[in-house]
Structure formats: C-alpha cells, structure tokens
Amino acid sequence: MARILLAGGGSAGHVNPLLATADELRRRHPEIAIEALGTETGLETELVPAAGYPLTFIPRARLPRGPSPELLTLPGRLRAALTTTGAVIERFRPDVVVGFGGYVSTPAYRAAFARGVPVVLHEQNARPGLANRYGARRAAVVALTFASTPLTAARGRTVVTGLPLRGPVAELAAARAAGTADRAAAARELGLDPTAPTILITGGSLGAASINAAAADAVPRLAATAQVLHLTGSGKSGPVLEAHRRAGSPTNYHVREYLPEMHRAYACADLVVTRSGAGMVCELSALGLPALYVPLPIGNGEQRRNAADVVAGGGGQIVEDSALTADLLASRVAELVRDPEALRAMGERAAAVGTRDGAGALADEIEATW
After folding, report:
1. Domain that holds residue 106
2. What is the pLDDT of residues 239-286, one digit of tens each?
3. Which CATH number covers residue 34?
4. How far is CA 16 from the centre of its chain?
C-alpha cells in the first residue's frame, strides 16, 4: 500500500490542488494512505479534515520578503517546523512527499531530502515561489501548471500537468466539453434566467475592491446589457447593494457575497470579470469561459503572468487595475456580449489553452515515483 504525504496550506490556491490530487489518488487506489501537513492559520484547518484526510500542524516558518522582526525568529521557527515534519516522516514513512508550495512545503522538502524520500512538487503560478525554487534543486519531479513557468528540476524531470481542479469544477469541465452541462439546473439553483446572457463578476472569496467599485458604478449599464451575478467577497456587499438600490434595484443584477458552489456560477456564465490568480485562470480556461482579467497590482506580478498564456491564445483580455473604471467595464462587457459569435470563439480559444485533467496528470507522476 502506497503512503503519500502532502504538504501545502495557507491559501485556497495551495489547498484546493492538494485536495484534488489526494482525491484522484484515493479514487485510483482506495487502499492508499494519505496524510497532509499544514499550519493552524490556513484554510487547510477546515478543508483537509472535511475531505477526510489526517492533518498534522507544523509551526509556521514564513520567510519575510523584507527586513522585519519576524526575520529574527525565523531560524527557531524553521528548526521547530523541521523537527515536527521529520517526526511525521519517520512515523508515517511515506513513499513520496508531494508539495504544493508555500511555507509549509519548505520544511517538508528539507526533511524529505534528509531522509532520502522522493519529492514531487507542483508549482501553481507562472512565477515560482521560494519554496518550490528550493525544492526543484533535488525533486524527482517538478510539475508545472503553465508551460511558461521558469522552473526546472535540477536532477529529476520537469513536466507540465496543468492545475489539479476541484472535483465539481473538473466534472463541469468534462460536461461542457461533451456538451452535456446543465445550465438550466444551475440557473434554477441560483435564481437566474438560464436563457439570458450572463456575466459573472468575482474577486474571489475575499473580493476585489477595484472590481467591486467599478461594477457598482456601472450597475445600470451592466444590467441593461446582460444578467449579472456579482460575488462581492465576504463582508463587502454594502457599497454594491447601495449602488444597486440607487439604480432602481434591477432584478437581473444579482448580488451575493460568496458562493461555495462556484461550479454553478460557472455553469451559467457567458463571460467572467475577475482577478487572475492561477486557480481562477486554470478553472476558466478548462471550462472554456472567456474572461476579462484584472491582475492584482501588488506582489511580484505573478497574476499578470498567470493570464499570459490564455490571453496570448485569445481566450481572455487583460484590463489593468489602474485603468479599470465603470465606463471601461461597461463598454468592454457590452462589446463582447453583443457579439455572441466572437464571445463563443473566445471561449473556444480559452478551452484550447486549458487543461481539464491536471489531477490525473499529477497523479500519474506521483505513481511513477513511488
């Protein structure tokens, strides 16, 4: 019986691919033993146990990006994380350690290398993070979401698998490719008109202030163009709801803070306005959904890079955050929605870039390693 230790946590961007991979391995090998490493402050605290996998917490050993008091305590926290991780490896005796980046992965890689355990790592973003740049030095496999990602295995093999997608999204992608997706059923669940052109606006679970602000100011024009489902992010619906009220409360402009069943929103959408986190870009391209991507303007520029391949392929457009206004948003959406044939072709080009079975491809690499 194979034994797999998964390392990744903090954001949904790390946890969702981890769980998608775990589920695919368990589907293939019901007897497999899988455990996960995480911290007490990330989403993994809820998502991993809910999916039925044992989770061990390790001390958070984040490397600050600049000088800070946190840097002074890093050596001690890293030693503690290595000690905890090493104890898990010695107890669990995994055949492979699979890391998904983030500060949980660095001690997992180090502890695995020290004990001769093979490492498979998956890099989600177009610009690799520090943990995976370290892990790539000795990993047996470096698996990439994007072919353009500048990360290669120094000793092992480098492959492009795409992103392991959440189960419901992967199932919807397969159904859309087969022409069997049930838009009407999803629309009924969300209280939408399945026959109306539908725009999905979302900044993710935390929302995106600039997208919310532009959309709020454009409510009357957007509602005159198409049906809108606007997911504002938790606790951020107030200004949008007030703008909606001022616009006369158009019944085809639907405002919610958060939707756990995002696959239902995707099933209804004809165009998406969103940030370009790796998970979002991969889900939309796998689904063949055209999008206006508004990259987060902070960080190291990875969001712009994440969308580069699908935009170059004609499956999406970039709108700079600094240029995003109500006028630009309303006019760009209207231009696309009023040309259904162009919008359909844009979706087909997105699908040509997307990968629907990233979990299967990564599971193949893990199987070949144990």
Report:
1. 3-163+356-367
2. 999 999 999 999 999 999 999 899 999 999 999 999 999 999 999 999
3. 3.40.50.2000
4. 7
Strand partners, 295: none
* DSSP result, 141-187: EEEESSTT-----SSSEEEE--PPPPHHHHHHHHHHHHT---HHHHH
Phi, then psi, of 25 in degrees rounded to 5: -65, -40
Kindly state the tokens that stand for 325. Answer: 């206004």
**Shared-domain flag, residues 227 and 321:** yes
Write down the pTM of the prediction.
0.89
Q: What is the pLDDT of residues 337-368, one digit of tens each?
A: 999 999 999 999 999 999 999 999 999 999 99
Handedness of CA 32, 49, 284, 196 (dihedral sign): positive
Question: What gap in Å lies between CA 140 and CA 359, rounded to an integer?
Answer: 18
Reported as a single tens digit per residue, the pLDDT across 297-324 is 987 788 999 999 999 999 999 999 999 9
Sign of the Cα pseudo-torsion (302, 230, 348, 184, in order): positive
DSSP label at residue 203: -
